[in-house]
Amino acid sequence: MGNAFTVMDCQGAPASSSLNFSAGVSTLTNQLVMNCVGTAVKVGNASVTIRNSIFFNNTGVLGGAVYLAPGASLTLASVVFLNNSAVQGSAVYVDK
Question: Of the candidates 15, 39, 45, 91, which lies 20 to 30 Å from 8 by C-alpha distance?
Answer without folding.
Answer: 45
